[in-house]
Amino acid sequence: NAIRYYTKLSIQLITKFLYNVELISRMRNGLVEDVLDKKMLLLMKAYRDHLISEGENADKLEETITFLTHTSVMVELFSDKYAIFHVKDNRILKLQRALQYFHNWKLNAITSKEFLSYKSWFDLQSMILGFISLVKSKLARFPGSCIKPAIVNQDVVQNHFCQLRGANGQNDNPTYQMVQGTQNSVIFGQTTISKKCNTGTTTKNVSFTGLPKEKLFSRR
Fold first, then answer.
1. What confidence tens digit (pLDDT) does each residue in 34-77 have?
2. Do 46 and 3 touch, CB atoms closer than 8 A?
3. Rounded to two decimals, what is the model's pTM?
4. Domains of the chain, residue spans
5. Inter-axis angle of helices 29-36 and 38-53, to 10 degrees?
6. From what superkingdom does this record's organism come (predicted)?
7. To pair with 109 at 20 to 30 A between CA atoms, which of 40, 115, 202, 212?
8. For the residues of 118-185, what is the DSSP string, one character each?
Protein backbone atom coordinates (compact mmCIF):
# COMPACT_ATOMS: atom_id res chain seq x y z
CA ASN A 1 0.00 0.00 0.00
CA ALA A 2 2.86 2.37 0.78
CA ILE A 3 4.43 1.71 -2.62
CA ARG A 4 1.09 2.23 -4.35
CA TYR A 5 0.50 5.53 -2.54
CA TYR A 6 4.01 6.85 -3.20
CA THR A 7 3.82 5.85 -6.84
CA LYS A 8 0.50 7.62 -7.37
CA LEU A 9 1.91 10.71 -5.68
CA SER A 10 4.96 10.56 -7.95
CA ILE A 11 2.77 10.30 -11.05
CA GLN A 12 0.86 13.39 -9.92
CA LEU A 13 4.14 15.30 -9.49
CA ILE A 14 5.33 14.21 -12.94
CA THR A 15 2.04 15.35 -14.49
CA LYS A 16 2.25 18.74 -12.80
CA PHE A 17 5.86 19.09 -13.93
CA LEU A 18 4.90 18.47 -17.54
CA TYR A 19 2.02 20.88 -17.87
CA ASN A 20 2.64 23.62 -15.32
CA VAL A 21 5.79 25.61 -15.96
CA GLU A 22 4.93 28.03 -13.15
CA LEU A 23 5.15 25.15 -10.70
CA ILE A 24 8.57 24.21 -12.06
CA SER A 25 9.88 27.70 -11.37
CA ARG A 26 8.99 27.26 -7.69
CA MET A 27 10.42 23.75 -7.39
CA ARG A 28 14.00 23.29 -6.29
CA ASN A 29 16.28 21.52 -8.73
CA GLY A 30 16.75 18.64 -6.32
CA LEU A 31 13.02 17.90 -6.18
CA VAL A 32 12.69 18.02 -9.97
CA GLU A 33 15.61 15.61 -10.31
CA ASP A 34 14.09 13.26 -7.73
CA VAL A 35 10.87 13.14 -9.74
CA LEU A 36 12.59 12.49 -13.08
CA ASP A 37 15.74 10.49 -12.30
CA LYS A 38 16.70 6.82 -12.57
CA LYS A 39 15.43 6.00 -9.08
CA MET A 40 11.95 7.12 -10.08
CA LEU A 41 12.24 5.01 -13.22
CA LEU A 42 13.12 1.95 -11.15
CA LEU A 43 10.20 2.69 -8.82
CA MET A 44 7.75 2.82 -11.72
CA LYS A 45 9.10 -0.42 -13.15
CA ALA A 46 8.79 -2.09 -9.75
CA TYR A 47 5.23 -0.80 -9.41
CA ARG A 48 4.40 -2.14 -12.88
CA ASP A 49 5.77 -5.56 -11.94
CA HIS A 50 3.75 -5.43 -8.73
CA LEU A 51 0.52 -4.71 -10.62
CA ILE A 52 1.22 -7.57 -13.02
CA SER A 53 1.85 -9.95 -10.12
CA GLU A 54 -1.50 -8.90 -8.63
CA GLY A 55 -3.23 -9.61 -11.92
CA GLU A 56 -3.99 -5.94 -12.62
CA ASN A 57 -3.57 -4.05 -15.87
CA ALA A 58 -0.22 -2.23 -15.94
CA ASP A 59 -0.43 -0.86 -19.48
CA LYS A 60 -1.26 2.61 -18.16
CA LEU A 61 2.27 2.89 -16.78
CA GLU A 62 4.09 2.19 -20.05
CA GLU A 63 4.05 5.78 -21.29
CA THR A 64 5.20 7.05 -17.90
CA ILE A 65 8.06 4.54 -17.90
CA THR A 66 9.06 5.56 -21.43
CA PHE A 67 9.00 9.21 -20.39
CA LEU A 68 11.17 8.54 -17.33
CA THR A 69 13.57 6.46 -19.42
CA HIS A 70 14.47 9.60 -21.35
CA THR A 71 14.32 12.14 -18.51
CA SER A 72 16.55 9.95 -16.34
CA VAL A 73 19.14 10.03 -19.13
CA MET A 74 19.18 13.83 -19.02
CA VAL A 75 19.36 14.03 -15.23
CA GLU A 76 22.18 11.50 -15.15
CA LEU A 77 24.17 13.20 -17.91
CA PHE A 78 24.07 16.74 -16.52
CA SER A 79 25.22 15.52 -13.11
CA ASP A 80 27.91 13.23 -14.54
CA LYS A 81 31.52 14.03 -13.62
CA TYR A 82 33.00 11.63 -16.16
CA ALA A 83 34.47 13.51 -19.11
CA ILE A 84 33.21 13.35 -22.69
CA PHE A 85 36.03 12.89 -25.21
CA HIS A 86 34.08 12.24 -28.41
CA VAL A 87 30.88 13.43 -30.07
CA LYS A 88 29.88 9.78 -30.52
CA ASP A 89 29.87 9.24 -26.77
CA ASN A 90 26.98 6.97 -25.82
CA ARG A 91 25.62 9.63 -23.45
CA ILE A 92 25.36 12.12 -26.31
CA LEU A 93 23.54 9.56 -28.45
CA LYS A 94 21.08 8.89 -25.63
CA LEU A 95 20.53 12.62 -25.27
CA GLN A 96 19.73 12.89 -28.97
CA ARG A 97 17.27 10.00 -28.69
CA ALA A 98 15.61 11.75 -25.76
CA LEU A 99 15.14 14.90 -27.84
CA GLN A 100 13.72 12.82 -30.69
CA TYR A 101 11.27 11.21 -28.27
CA PHE A 102 9.92 14.61 -27.20
CA HIS A 103 9.81 15.77 -30.82
CA ASN A 104 7.74 12.72 -31.83
CA TRP A 105 5.47 13.32 -28.86
CA LYS A 106 4.88 16.89 -30.01
CA LEU A 107 4.04 15.74 -33.55
CA ASN A 108 1.48 13.24 -32.24
CA ALA A 109 -0.16 15.69 -29.84
CA ILE A 110 -3.52 16.87 -31.12
CA THR A 111 -3.83 19.89 -28.82
CA SER A 112 -1.27 21.97 -26.93
CA LYS A 113 -2.57 20.57 -23.64
CA GLU A 114 -1.32 17.13 -24.62
CA PHE A 115 2.30 18.25 -24.70
CA LEU A 116 4.79 20.22 -22.65
CA SER A 117 4.22 23.89 -22.05
CA TYR A 118 5.84 26.23 -24.57
CA LYS A 119 8.48 27.38 -22.08
CA SER A 120 9.36 23.84 -21.02
CA TRP A 121 9.75 22.71 -24.63
CA PHE A 122 11.85 25.74 -25.55
CA ASP A 123 14.14 25.29 -22.53
CA LEU A 124 14.45 21.57 -23.18
CA GLN A 125 15.54 22.11 -26.78
CA SER A 126 17.94 24.88 -25.76
CA MET A 127 19.52 22.70 -23.10
CA ILE A 128 19.99 19.62 -25.27
CA LEU A 129 20.92 21.27 -28.57
CA GLY A 130 23.11 23.82 -26.81
CA PHE A 131 25.06 21.16 -24.93
CA ILE A 132 25.54 18.98 -28.01
CA SER A 133 26.72 22.01 -30.00
CA LEU A 134 29.12 22.91 -27.19
CA VAL A 135 30.62 19.43 -27.24
CA LYS A 136 30.98 19.40 -31.03
CA SER A 137 32.47 22.89 -31.15
CA LYS A 138 35.03 22.40 -28.40
CA LEU A 139 36.19 18.96 -29.49
CA ALA A 140 36.51 20.15 -33.09
CA ARG A 141 38.52 23.26 -32.20
CA PHE A 142 40.61 21.63 -29.49
CA PRO A 143 41.30 17.98 -30.41
CA GLY A 144 42.21 15.86 -27.42
CA SER A 145 40.27 18.03 -24.98
CA CYS A 146 37.22 16.94 -23.00
CA ILE A 147 34.07 18.25 -21.35
CA LYS A 148 32.73 17.31 -17.93
CA PRO A 149 28.93 17.71 -18.05
CA ALA A 150 28.55 18.27 -14.30
CA ILE A 151 30.56 21.51 -14.36
CA VAL A 152 28.95 23.03 -17.47
CA ASN A 153 26.88 26.08 -16.59
CA GLN A 154 25.77 29.42 -17.99
CA ASP A 155 27.78 31.66 -15.65
CA VAL A 156 30.13 32.88 -18.40
CA VAL A 157 27.25 33.89 -20.67
CA GLN A 158 25.30 35.39 -17.80
CA ASN A 159 28.35 37.36 -16.71
CA HIS A 160 28.80 38.79 -20.21
CA PHE A 161 25.23 40.03 -20.43
CA CYS A 162 25.40 41.39 -16.89
CA GLN A 163 28.32 43.56 -18.00
CA LEU A 164 26.41 44.74 -21.07
CA ARG A 165 23.43 45.70 -18.92
CA GLY A 166 25.67 47.42 -16.40
CA ALA A 167 27.34 49.48 -19.12
CA ASN A 168 23.92 50.68 -20.29
CA GLY A 169 22.46 51.94 -17.04
CA GLN A 170 21.47 48.53 -15.65
CA ASN A 171 18.94 48.20 -18.45
CA ASP A 172 17.38 44.73 -18.34
CA ASN A 173 16.45 44.89 -22.02
CA PRO A 174 19.12 46.87 -23.88
CA THR A 175 18.51 47.40 -27.58
CA TYR A 176 20.95 46.53 -30.35
CA GLN A 177 21.88 50.18 -30.74
CA MET A 178 22.65 50.45 -27.02
CA VAL A 179 24.79 47.31 -27.01
CA GLN A 180 26.80 47.83 -30.19
CA GLY A 181 29.14 50.43 -28.72
CA THR A 182 29.99 48.41 -25.62
CA GLN A 183 30.17 44.89 -27.03
CA ASN A 184 33.81 44.96 -28.12
CA SER A 185 34.90 46.79 -24.98
CA VAL A 186 33.36 44.08 -22.84
CA ILE A 187 34.90 41.30 -24.94
CA PHE A 188 38.43 42.69 -25.23
CA GLY A 189 38.84 45.02 -22.28
CA GLN A 190 36.51 43.98 -19.51
CA THR A 191 37.31 41.52 -16.76
CA THR A 192 35.81 38.05 -17.10
CA ILE A 193 34.13 38.53 -13.72
CA SER A 194 31.59 41.27 -13.06
CA LYS A 195 30.48 42.77 -9.76
CA LYS A 196 27.06 43.33 -11.27
CA CYS A 197 25.95 39.68 -11.33
CA ASN A 198 25.85 36.67 -9.05
CA THR A 199 29.24 35.51 -10.30
CA GLY A 200 30.87 38.73 -9.13
CA THR A 201 33.97 39.30 -7.05
CA THR A 202 35.57 42.10 -5.08
CA THR A 203 38.93 41.69 -6.80
CA LYS A 204 39.91 44.83 -8.68
CA ASN A 205 40.76 44.38 -12.34
CA VAL A 206 43.70 46.60 -13.24
CA SER A 207 43.63 45.63 -16.91
CA PHE A 208 40.18 47.06 -17.56
CA THR A 209 40.43 49.51 -20.45
CA GLY A 210 37.13 51.22 -19.80
CA LEU A 211 33.98 51.55 -21.84
CA PRO A 212 33.55 54.18 -24.56
CA LYS A 213 31.76 57.32 -23.49
CA GLU A 214 29.73 57.42 -26.68
CA LYS A 215 28.23 54.83 -28.98
CA LEU A 216 30.72 54.19 -31.74
CA PHE A 217 28.18 53.35 -34.41
CA SER A 218 25.25 55.50 -33.39
CA ARG A 219 23.64 57.89 -35.82
CA ARG A 220 24.89 61.45 -35.50
1. 778 888 888 888 888 888 888 888 888 888 889 889 999 998 99
2. yes
3. 0.64
4. 1-151, 154-188
5. 40
6. Eukaryota
7. 40
8. HHHHHHHHHHHHHHHHHHHHHHHHSTT--B-GGG--SHHHHHHHHHHHHHTTS-SS--HHHHHHHHHH
